[in-house]
Amino acid sequence: MSVTICKPGDNINTIATSGAAGDTFILTTGTYQSQKVLPLDGQTFIGQQGVVMDGTATTDYCFYYDDAVRHPRGVTLRNLTIQNYTGGAGRGMIHGDNAVQWVLDHLTVTGCTAGRGIETGPGMILRSCRVTNNYLEGLSGFQSHGLCIEACEFANNNTSHSAPDTATGAGSGFKLATCIGVRIRQTYSHDNYGPGIWIDCDCHDVQLIGCQTMRNSHRGIQIEISDTVLVLDTVCLNEGIGGAPPGAAGIFVSSSSNVEIAGCRFLQCQTGIGEHDDPARGTGPYGPRRTTNFNVHDNEDTPMGS
Fold first, then answer.
1. Is residue 283 included in any domain, yes or no?
2. Are the beta carbons of 70 and 95 closer than 8 angstroms?
3. 6 & 153 share domain
4. What angle do CA 36, 42, 46 make, to 5 degrees?
5. Is omega for the bond preceding 246 within 30 degrees of 0, making it cis?
């Protein structure tokens, strides 16, 4: 394993793929334009202060995997600003669907022009990242089992104003589907168009602990056709304003089983917790998609006008 110093104007992909698995690359301060990097396993990319990876609205992905080439595992991205990539046809500037056990640490991911900020893969860890002003979701995850999101901020995402409350709804601070064992801690999602945090479509064993949402256009947290979700010690502020209950809420639970909401605070929301049960949602891997075993306790609700 070696350490290589890179500078603006270098082709980072050529340098990385000419190296070896496990190598580290230090990017010196400056702007790196239209870089598109398919790493090798275990490679680490660290930016000095002020490093910007700019897609100039012409390049689809910054860091990615490729089904036809390889699925790099264990890649680390640290202290980088990634901006102005297109995200391809609705994908992520960090295109990581099948990227296993990547670590995204102290990144700013902003300004995707046609897709998402980040697509997550199994075992991915996001730590102290800021994800803002992306065309659809700030982050999306499908079958991202074991995903961990910690001390991150999601703000002003879904700049397209794609409607979330449709059969193919998209757009939110971040949205997860069919994910098992996700842990979301101390994360702040605010001023997004759509739900701030969206747990959807047969997610199972999800925990949101110590999070905060504020001023998202539809609701703070949406838990939809999922099972075994814990929301603990979380604050929702000014959520669902101008909408109608039950969907306009700090937390909206729709056709989901074994959901527990405890120790949370709802401040000036249209309603604190909204509940909906639709028998037409069918049956999933965890049984009927119905709102059953809904456990709500030890929460505090300060309604609008109080």
1. yes
2. no
3. yes
4. 60
5. yes
**Residue 231, burial from CB neighbour count under 10 angstroms (0-12, 13-18, 19+):** buried
The predicted pLDDT at position 77 comes to: 98
pLDDT at 240 over 90: yes
| Tokens 């709102």 -> residue | 291
60-79: buried (b, 16+ CB within 10 Å) or exposed (e) per residue? Answer: bbbbbbeeeeeebbbbbbbb
- Residue 213 reports pLDDT greater than 80: yes
| pLDDT given for residue 86 in this prediction | 98
State the sign of the Cα–Cα–Cα–Cα dihedral 126, 224, 259, 194. positive
Q: Is 226 inside any structural domain? A: yes
Please state, in angstroms and rounded to a whole number, the distance separating the CA atoms of residues 142 and 272: 28
Rounded to whole angstroms, the Cα distance separating 132 from 116 reads: 10
Total number of domains in the chain = 2
Hey, how many other C-beta atoms are within 10 angstroms of the C-beta on 50? 11
pLDDT at 242 over 90: no
- Cα separations (Å) of 72 from 4, 119, 246? 19, 14, 43
- Residues spanned by the domain of 216: 194-306
Task: Please write the tens of the pLDDT for every residue from 32-48.
Answer: 999 999 999 999 999 99
Q: Mapping DSSP to helix (H, G, I), strand (E, B) and coil, where does residue 109 land?
A: strand
- Three-class DSSP category at 152: coil
| Domain membership flag for residue 87 | yes
Question: HSE of 7 in the Cβ direction (CA atoms, 13 Å)?
Answer: 0
Give residue-wise pLDDT tens across range 264-288.
999 999 999 999 999 999 999 999 9
Strand pairing of 283-284 and 287-288?
A: antiparallel
- Assess if residue 78 is contained within a domain: yes
Q: Which two tokens mark 265?
A: 């605070």
- 3-class SS of residue 194: coil
What is the three-class DSSP state of 12? helix
Mean pLDDT across the stretch 191-199?
97
Token pair in block for residue 232: 């603990």
